[in-house]
Structure formats: structure tokens, C-alpha cells
## 1
Amino acid sequence: MDYALKINGKPVLLVEAKALGDMLDDVKAITQVVGYAANNGIVWCVLTNGVNWKVYRSMEQCEAPDKLMFQVSLDPRDPGGIPVQQLVGQLRRFSREEMAKGTLDVLGEKTFTDGKVRKALDAMMQSPPRPFVKLMRKAIGDSNLTPQQVKDSLVRIWAASGAAPVAPGQRLPPERISDTPSAIRHQAAVKAAETRRRKVEGPAYDESHHIAGKPQEVLELYHAVDRLCLSLRPGAVDKYFRSKSINYRREKHIFCCIHLFATDLRVWLKLKYGRLATPPPAFARDVPHAKHWGVGDLELRITNLAQLDEAANLIRQSYEENA
């Protein structure tokens, strides 16, 4: 059943109501409602079963499921559930008042644009095009550098910044690897260590395992926290992937763990809730005895970019105390 919500007689939000219990994951149904909204000039549409609410930006140039901006769950049993105050804030985004002010339009434009620019930069920096390399070489002002040296350097710097994680099987531009006996022994030791790790930890996971199918806003929250963690000490902080978490550490000391839910970004830090110098934000929770997938006693449930400043301070504190 479709509902068109209007302001001054103009439809601004299309709501497709499904039966209670519908999983809302049928690609055909998603494509139908998003396509109907786009064909009628309605930017925003909601697919809901009364408990779960999925908000799509219909005008985006991508596959219908990828137009998902954010998702809200009213089910108190949902492991990805968020506190009532945050839940109300998410739902208020498509209220009459906020739609009239264009709040969702501004947020959607920023979120989807940032995602597109980031993806374009990732692609460009992993294989820098010749005009860009030429421009960089000119800006550097050192004619002794060859275009290939500049290109390789760009790829290394981008990968080291954490902006473009190296995918399984992908290699950075090769340095001149020595074929001396010591170098060969080192490479063999690294390979053996990886084999032992897989026997103990099971199959390897990568970033795609965690981000697949997540709403655009949650992805942008993840990338913002990811950049922050890796920038705390470039080259010294690394991340590794488990089935349920993305973990950040310096040497062997974990200071931050992340899990992407459909409704929010969950962050765990090695901090004691009762020992924080300032009162923790409303989206923080003390979880020393609760089951979770990260390392640490402090949990952050981040649902929007406005919460990142407070979260960033706590992430830095966890890094400083544990690294």
C-alpha cells in the first residue's frame, strides 16, 4: 500500500507499507518503490513493515538497494537497536517539520556526494591517471622524479593513510625486493606465519565482508572513524578484520573495534566508563559484563555525523591510554 506525504500539495515522501514480518529485502520490491518515487519526482521514499523503516534517496544514479540512506528499527530485541533518544532523532528526520526545512535533503546530498567522491578518489589513487601524475610532478618541482616514481608514491601514500585499504591479493607498487638469502628467509617466515594464523583464526575476512549492504550513512560514519584511527599515528596503526569486528591496534595493543549495523555504527573502546574525565555522551554505554564483539568496556552507538566529534575525543583517549 502506497502513501504520498505532501507539503503544500506537493508530494515529498512516498511510503510503501508492507505486511508486518516482511523482511523488506526483496530487490524487486525495493526497485519498484524507488523507481515509482523517482518517476514521479519524489526524492525520498520509505519502505516499512511497521517495525523496520528503510529510507531511500530515489534520484541517485545507482542500483536501487544502494540508494538506501539510513535504516531504523523499532524492535527492542534487535541487536542493532539504539536508545530511544537516538531513535526519535532518526525518525524525526522525515517528519513534516524537518522535510519542510529540507533537513533530509541537505544530509542526503552531503552523504551521497561524499561517498561518490571517496570512491572516485580510491579508484584514481590506486591507479593514478597520467594527467594527474603529470600535474603532481609539476607541483613537486623535481624534474629528477620520473612519472612512475610519482605514481608509485601516490599509491603508497594513499594506502598508508588508510583511505584505500589493500584488498586481499592486491599488492602495493613493488620496491626492489632483494633476492639475498636473508630476504628469501624473511618472506618464507611471513608466509608461514600467515598459514599458522589461518589455521588458528579460520578464514580471512576483508572490508567488503563488513560493508556489504549497509546504508550510505553508516558507511560514511565508518569511513570517518576509520580515517581517524589510522591517522593517529600514520604507518604505525594497522587494522585487521574478524568475522564480527574491524579492529585497530598499534603494535599488539587494540584500542578500537567497530561493527557496522544497518541502523548505526557500533564502536568499542578500551576505556572505563566510570573513569572518564568528562561525562560520557548520551550515545555511550558501559558494557563490562555485556556480550559484544569488540575489545573494551565502553560502547558507542553512533547514528549521525554530528556525534563524531565527541566520539573522536574518546577514540583518541583510548589510543593514548592503550598504545
## 2
Amino acid sequence: MTDATLPAGEAAPLVARDVRLALGDLPVLDGIDLEVGRGEVVALVGPSGCGKSTLLELVCGLLAADSGTLRTRPAALMPQRDLLLPWLDARDNVALPLRIAGTGRREARARAGELLDRVELGGFARSRPDQLSGGMRQRVAFLRALATERELLCLDEPFGALDAITREELRAWLSGLLDARPRSVLLVTHDVEEAVLLGDRVVVLSPRPARVTDVIDVAAPRGARDTGGTPVPRDPTDPALVAARRAVRDALHAAIAADRGRAA
């Protein structure tokens, strides 16, 4: 296994080649090939339990692969549960990675406050997690990941625990935030709609042990703005998105059918 931090001149913040991993006797990843380009959002979809979250943990250095090549810039992980520290207010939760990195308390709080202001949460800077709605908590958790200033963000079903309306609002919010502050993103989601609304490419994984069975390019551009300069999320009725949704669903069904055929 070759595992290294990419040099500053490397174009792709994440490059994985033939990455394999087993947890004990259980094969989880079976020769993963994957790239995330600079400023690109790549969505990972696949059947439940196929190894999507495990792959994120590997990219973030929480696990080591058994074989293959993995080269990545330092990455920040946002898990499905927000994991905010209940004894800290929103500002100090956002500031936490800055404090861990050695930034002084005053500067860390100032930078965290600026981030909260940008997403209209400045009025809740002194609120603790139990005083925030689920959507607010997820915004704070995302800002905490963003505060690390790491180019690669790994998001593990960040909206999966939210109701449908809040999830839709946060998709639009995240899309606008990434347009304003571009980062490379590896997004795990079980929601095909979410994958094509946020992703530049959608990578389809097989049932465990995970293999890449298809890669669908999402032709609809990101970064559109209205006449006032405000970022506008993608339109779900855009023919390019409709076609991408169909292609992803077809690829998922094909991957599951192929796996059942092998098992039989």
C-alpha cells in the first residue's frame, strides 16, 4: 500500500488506484479507482453497507488500506451525525479545529464568528447544540469542517437524518456555499437526487466488497447566479439532471443485479 500526501503542484486532491481493504475476514473494498479534481464535487452512491463510509475513513486517514495506491491532500471529515460538543456553543464548536491546530482563542473565535455570519447564523453564535434545530446543527458541523481550511472535504450523508424539507433547503445552502468558497468534495449519499444536484460526477459502487461499476458525468453546470449575484442551485427539472438521475438509477440496478447473478 502506498499512502502519501500530495505535493502542492498535484492537480487532483485525491487519487486512488486499485485500493483494497478487508476488516478482519470481511472484504470491504475491492480495487477502488477514484479521483477528485480540484474544486470538483464527486458523489459516491451504492447499496447500503457496500463500504462508502469506510472509503471516506480511509481517505481521511482513519483507516489504512491493505494494498493499492492512495494519494490525498489532508482531508476534513463530516459524519452523518453532527457530533457537536454539547458543552460548547456554536462559535466554539466551529472554532474547535482551529484551536486544536494552535490558533489562539480570540483569533479562532473571530474566524468562527465570521463563518457563522456568512451563513446567517451569527445570531446563534452563543447557542449550544441543544438550542439549535437539526438544520442549524448540520450547518454548524459543516462550518467546523470548513474552518480547517483543508482543500478536500469528505461528507458522509450530511443530510441523511433530516426531514425532506430541511434536506432540500440544506442542499441549496451547501450548493451556494461551495460556489462561494470552492473546495474539492467527496460526498457519500444514498439519495440519487442529492448526488446529481450537488455532484459534478457520480461514482456508482457495487454491493460489498465495493468496486466502481460506473461513473456518470452530470452535464448541468454549477455556479449559476441570479441578477443580484446570489448563487442559484441547480434546477431538478433540467433535462441534463433528469438524464443523470436516470443513468445513476440504471447503474445502481445493474450493479445490484450483477452481484445477485454472481451470488447465484
## 3
Amino acid sequence: MFDTPLGITLFIIICVLALILITLLNFYLVGHILRLAILTRSHKNKWTRGCPVKEPLQIEMYDIGQKWHDANVASKKELHIENEGFNLYGEYFDFGFDRALIFVSGRTEALGYGYYFVQPYKELGYNVFVFDQRAHGHSDGKYNTLGFEEHKDLIKWAELLHDTYGNKSILLHGICIGSSCCLQALVSDKCPDYICGMIADGMYTRFYDSFKNHLVKFKQPKNLLAPFVNMSFKLATGHTMRIGNIDFIDKLTKPILFIHSKKDKYSVPSMAEALYAKVSHDKKKLVWFEDGAHSRLRPVDTERYDGAIKEFLAEHFEEVKA
């Protein structure tokens, strides 16, 4: 069959097609493995309440946060809800105010990460709630869906804080993927009026673009791998990384504060600029930090970080405490 010119040509075509198929299968396998690593909780010891990254700055942040927790543990209530078949867990610090702050951690970070960031809110007159998102800490779940599913849990938590614990208004503060969860809650048709606004630290336009920046850092072929990671993600969760905050932030009607580093290598500065520009109202503010890694801005200049929050709240909400 292959001893004629036509047969040789056919053989070459078959070999080329087989090589292409093997290459595509290899890329899908690598993409699947990456999705399992970064967006899937494969066992209960993954994404626990401990410090997820053993690097000095984050360890220091966790230690400071734990000291805040220990100093305020007398005000803490352990809370539990069920939503869409998942058991979800959180901690509510009741300081006697009639409004609350919900902190939403990023990927890999359970509620313990929030202790470091919520510190200014007690002084500003807010009760504080931190929680384990799906697939984190003590909560059920397997996948991180970039807020597409988790924002439904966030709304349920807000309802509990309002209906049961008497908080008249609820503010959201999210880090990276956590800020995407907050935004999706605020633009949801089911968002109650008392969820009044949000702080977004390190928000990206679409996770697809942010993930490609991660691949660049690790010197991987971003334009070849990213589509296969997204394919695996969509097959597992029904969602796509190609849709993100930039696609629905124009629906936001409530105040938003962007806090962003000019040296963020993942949610690069142009993302913050694009998101800010697409907010369709004037109840918005963008505060730049000249230095600081992604989601590591508060330790760079704690006074300025907390001050930006205080100024934002004073401008758009009831008078905050001095």
C-alpha cells in the first residue's frame, strides 16, 4: 500500500496527523494536571486553614492575623450554613455594631487568611465575618470555580448576617479571586440591597489572562497550555476562564474601591485600569501602590492601605468611627 508515490504521501499524512494528535493529547494531559493542581481540592489536607505558602512575608501576615484573632476570640461565633448541598463554615466576630464586613479570601486561602486584612474594620465600626469558601478549610467542595458558584454562598452568608444577627448593611472585601466572587454577588439578580459595596484588592479582568501571566513567570508556553487548562476546567465545572470581571462589571451599581499594585505581575496594572474605566458610575476609586506583590499590599504600607479604606467608607457610606 505504501510502496507507491500515493501510498508514501498517504503514509506521511497519517504520521503527521498522528503526531499532531499525540501533541494535542499531551497538551490536554498537562492542562488537566495543571487544573487539578490550581483549581481542584484533591484531598482534605489541601487548602486548609493554615498558611498555604511557606514564604516569610505570608508567614508573618498569618502570625499577625492570628494574634488579632486571639485578641478578639471572645467576640467570635462559629457559624455554619448549607447551600446547594455543601456544608459551609465561617467565623463571625460580633463587636456590637449594626453593620458587617465580609472578607473573601483568594484561591488556596481559607478563612485564616482574612484575620490579617480585617483588622481595620473593627476600629471603623464593623462587625467582621470570615469564611471557608467551597473546597477550602472546613467547607465541603472539590472545585474552585472563580466565583461563578461561590458567590451564591456569599449571598447566603450575607442573608444570615442580616436576618439573624441584625446587620443593617454589609460590605465586601475580596482578594484576587475573592474580589471576583464579591463582584458576582453584587451584580447578581439575587443580591439584596443591604450588600452595599466592595473593596477589590488585586482584581483581574479575566482569570484566563491572569493565569497566562502565571505561565509566563514559570516560562511555560502560555498560548498553548492555557486553552487546554480552560478546556479541562469547563468540562469539570461547566464554566470558562475566558469570561470574567471585565464582562459584567458594567452592571455594578454600588461603590467600589480598587486597591492595586503597579508591580502586580498577575493582575497587571492595565487590568485595574480597564476595570475602573468600565464601571459605569462615579462611586468608584482606584488607589495605586508603587510597590507590592499580588495580594501583598497591606504589609507594604499598612497605614496607607487602611487609610484608603477609611476614606472610601467615609465618602460613600455612613460616617465611620475615628
